[in-house]
Design goal:
The chain is an alpha+beta fold. It is built from seven helices and ten strands. Strands 1, 2, 3, 4, 5, 6, 7, 8, 9 and 10 form a ten-stranded mixed beta sheet that branches. Strand 1 and strand 2 form a beta hairpin. Helix 1 packs parallel to helix 7. The radius of gyration is 23 Å and the shape is elongated. About 3% of the residues have low confidence.
Length: 242
């Protein structure tokens, strides 16, 4: 006669197995969140460093009067561009928007785009974008935003003052800049797609990019993860509330 297993011991075995599985899952989630927090801090630090370096070169920096008018600032460090015949670009960065007491927590975005032509090789470029009005920011928060498509853009002027800017530049929704091989200048971007990296945003903040940048419950400086504060703090050094 076969012996029937004691239901109590079967239940206990299942409970132990489920508990062990839960512990492994929790540990994996903590490790993933810790890794993501480190990556977010590194991304914010790199963006802040690039912005500081550019603004430190006064004769070739972003004009302060334009920066003071910007509704949001984006920095995409080390965007790669390369290919053979068919090329492309890709990278990730952070965007902060003005709030009543400074700048918002940086939301994470991806930048990409393609081009066709006679080209070969790979290059790395830093991009800075100024979103000059609320309409530009609202367009940015769509699932996929194409510069030159939904948003009009112009190469941003450099120097101490924007007085030499053309009307087209001053009326553009987005002013774009690039730094490659140490040279910083305005750059007209077309066909570049920017979209929220909400996987990162949710893991770091528990919020989407839209909620971070436009939601009623903005994340205060004290509530931000410590590692990402450096980006809005850096923006505040160069531009306060208009």
């Amino acid at each position: 006669m076969k012996r029937i297993a004691n239901p109590f011991f079967v239940f206990m075995a299942i409970a132990v197995l489920l508990s062990a599985t839960s512990l492994v899952h929790a540990q994996t989630s903590r490790e993933r969140n810790t890794k993501k927090a480190r990556e977010a801090a590194a991304q914010s630090d790199k963006a802040a460093r690039i912005f500081s370096q550019i603004m430190a070169t006064r004769e070739k920096s972003i004009p302060h009067d334009l920066l003071d008018r910007a509704e949001a600032v984006a920095v995409f460090p080390s965007v790669w561009k390369g290919g053979f015949i068919v090329g492309g670009r890709g990278g990730s960065g952070v965007i902060s928007r003005r709030v009543a007491d400074g700048w918002s927590a940086p939301a994470f975005f991806d930048l990409g785009g393609g081009s066709i032509g006679l080209q070969i090789g790979v290059a790395s470029t830093d991009y800075i974008l100024l979103f000059m009005n609320e309409r530009a920011v609202d367009s940015l928060l769509n699932d996929k935003f194409e510069i030159g498509g939904e948003g009009s853009a112009a190469a941003g002027p450099v120097g101490r003052s924007a007085s030499a800017s053309t009307d087209a530049r001053l009326n553009a929704q987005i002013l774009s800049y690039s730094r490659s091989k140490g040279a910083f200048a305005g750059l007209e971007l077309k066909g570049v797609v920017i979209k929220p990296d909400n996987e990162d945003n949710l893991q770091v903040y528990g919020m989407t990019a839209r909620d971070i940048l436009t939601g009623a419950n903005k994340i205060s400086m004290s509530e931000m993860p410590e590692g990402v504060r450096i980006f809005p703090e850096t923006l505040a050094r160069f531009s306060r509330r208009r």
